[in-house]
Structure formats: structure tokens, C-alpha cells
Design brief:
Elements: E1 9-13, E2 18-23, E3 27-32, E4 35-46, E5 49-54, E6 59-65, E7 68-71, E8 74-78
Antiparallel strand pairs: 1-2, 1-8, 2-3, 3-4, 4-5, 5-6, 6-7, 7-8
Organism: Martelella endophytica
Pfam families: Atu4866
InterPro entries: Atu4866-like_sf, Uncharacterised_Atu4866
Length: 79
């Protein structure tokens, strides 16, 4: 299990609408449009796969491929 250090930082859709900030220590903050803290929760990275669980219990996942994060039908790039 990776701590996610290779992937921490800000990941953003090309239109800037969705922004995932992967924080050190396994926490994340997701912004949507003008909602800067739309979702918050934890994440675990195993290899190139990320599993998210927000603080309400909702879970999702994604994969890092070639410097791109593919998550729930979205493409996010590191900024």
C-alpha cells in the first residue's frame, strides 16, 4: 500500500470544474465549480489505483495512467 506521496497535489479536469487535492497523510478535498470544499474524505493508493471514501461514507475509485487520473468518467491532470 502506498502513502500516495507520488500522487499528492492538485488534480484538475481540463475545464477546471472539478479539482481534487490529494493531501499528504491520505486525506483529500474535492472542489466543484465555486464550491471549494464540496467533498472531503480519505484515500488509499495501491500501485496506480486510488480508492476514495468521503466523510459521508460514499466511495469511488480511479486509476493513474501516464500522469493522468481517470476517476468516475472524468480525466484529471496534475497542476
Amino acid at each position: 500500500m502506498s502513502s500516495g506521496n507520488d500522487f499528492t497535489g492538485l488534480w484538475v479536469t481540463d475545464d477546471g470544474h472539478i479539482r481534487h487535492e490529494l493531501l499528504p497523510g491520505g486525506r483529500y478535498v474535492e472542489a466543484r465549480g465555486t464550491r471549494e470544499r464540496a467533498y472531503e474524505g480519505s484515500y488509499v493508493i495501491t500501485g496506480n489505483h486510488i480508492d476514495y471514501r468521503d466523510d459521508t461514507g460514499f466511495s469511488a475509485d480511479g486509476d493513474f495512467v501516464g500522469g493522468v487520473l481517470y476517476h468516475a468518467g472524468m480525466i484529471l491532470r496534475r497542476r
